[in-house]
Design goal:
The protein folds into two domains: 168 residues, 3-Layer(aba) Sandwich (Peroxisomal Thiolase, Chain A, domain 1); 143 residues, Peroxisomal Thiolase, Chain A, domain 1. 32% of the residues lie in helices and 25% in strands. It has a five-stranded mixed β-sheet, sandwiched between helices. Strands 8-13-12-11 form a four-stranded mixed β-sheet, with helices on both faces. The two termini are 21 Å apart. The structure holds oxa(dethia)-CoA (UT7). Oxa(dethia)-CoA binds next to α2, α6, α7 and β12.
Length: 320
């Protein structure tokens, strides 16, 4: 039997606190104008001190279960893409499992930084296609504010917190669900975007360090490549794509990718203005918002693409 993995439902969660660019002007030497012009960001959400990545993941997962009318007992897998787990171990995934009363099954975290959600979607898709799992919660959740150096204006203005989730489900329908995924990494670039700490080095999680201009250059070319590859694999043209749901790092990167594909911005979901860069949470957050507001509709074709530390980059093409 060959299974397809269909996206059954989505959910997301954003912390209450909104941090506008004007607030950052008081913390570092920056301006609303610089941030907006260079990145497209107006504001981001910041989790409260006692709000953990798992709390956000649990809220997003609960929303996805509710929207899909899915009982916790029906879930047999949980994959959380995160760079900012509550603790070094155990995984955020087991906290989600416990909080939502999901029975004993497969649960783990996956680390591919901003590409994490697309990586997790691909791993879940392969579990389903192999017949090993039937219904998987795929979550992207991040508390990026916890690993920012709030004195470094080149990074602290860029990131935000939040979580998004989808439920991926085995189906015998053909031509629907995840049509293809492509995952890449190139460790030669590991030192252009990293944290300056970790369990086996400093014993602390460290803070984000980024050579922004170099990452930007790589992002534009890698994203275009991996998106072209997704189209070629499915013998599709960009015109046949209903929606592009890109990683939300910088509006200029998003626009450059859309332009390379000749895709009008009306077909691109943009949340970077309100969410900033939420790393692995950015795609499922944007996707859920577009699903809830009815912009993305059942039956449509959606292309996800991401790029982040590693460097890692990835795409997934889905028919809803
Ligand atoms: O999600 C993972 C992947 N990450 C990304 O995709 C991020 C990719 N990179 C970027 O989005 C952009 O490179 C940034 C938004 C990070 C920076 O934009 P940029 O146009 O590449 O600026 P830049 O780094 O070349 O800096 C230009 C100037 C510099 O001043 P000088 O050297 O020209 O005098 C910076 O010091 O802007 C200065 N600058 C700032 N000024 C005001 C850097 N950060 C700030 C700031 N406010 N926050």
């Amino acid at each position: 039997m060959t299974f397809s993995s269909i996206i059954r439902s989505t959910g997301s969660y954003l912390p209450q606190r909104v941090m506008k660019n004007a607030e950052l002007e008081k913390i570092v030497e920056t301006s609303d104008e610089w941030i907006f012009e260079r990145t497209g960001i107006r504001e981001r959400r910041i989790a409260s001190e006692d709000e953990k990545t798992s709390d956000m993941a649990i809220n997003a997962a609960r929303a996805a279960l509710e929207r899909g009318g899915i009982k916790p007992q029906e879930i047999d897998g949980i994959i959380v893409a995160t760079t900012t787990p509550d603790r070094t171990f155990p995984s955020v995934a087991v906290s989600v499992q416990k909080a939502l009363d999901i029975p004993v099954g497969t649960a783990f975290d996956l680390q591919a930084v901003c590409s994490g959600f697309v990586y997790a979607l691909s791993v879940a898709d392969n579990f389903i296609k192999a017949g090993q799992l039937k219904r998987i919660l795929v979550i992207g959740a991040e508390k990026m504010s916890a690993i920012l150096d709030w004195t470094d204006r080149t990074t602290c203005v860029l990131f935000g917190d939040g979580a998004g989730a989808v439920v991926l489900e085995a189906s015998l329908e053909k031509g629907r669900g995840i049509l293809s995924t492509h995952l890449y990494a190139d460790g030669r670039y590991k030192d252009i975007l990293y944290t300056d700490g970790g369990p086996s080095t400093t014993g602390k999680s460290g803070h984000i360090v980024m050579l922004g201009r170099e990452v930007f250059r790589q992002a534009v070319s890698r994203m275009a490549e991996v998106v072209e590859e997704a189209l070629a694999e499915n013998s599709m043209t960009a015109a046949e794509i209903d929606w592009l749901v890109p990683h939300q790092a910088n509006i200029r990167i998003i626009e450059a990718t859309a332009k390379k594909l000749n895709l009008p911005m009306e077909k691109v979901i943009v949340t970077v203005d309100r969410h900033g860069n939420t790393s692995a949470a950015s795609i499922p957050l944007a996707f859920d918002e577009a699903m809830r507001t009815g912009r993305i509709k059942p039956g449509q074709t959606v292309l996800f693409e991401a790029m982040g530390g590693g460097l890692t980059w990835a795409s997934a093409l889905a028919r809803l």
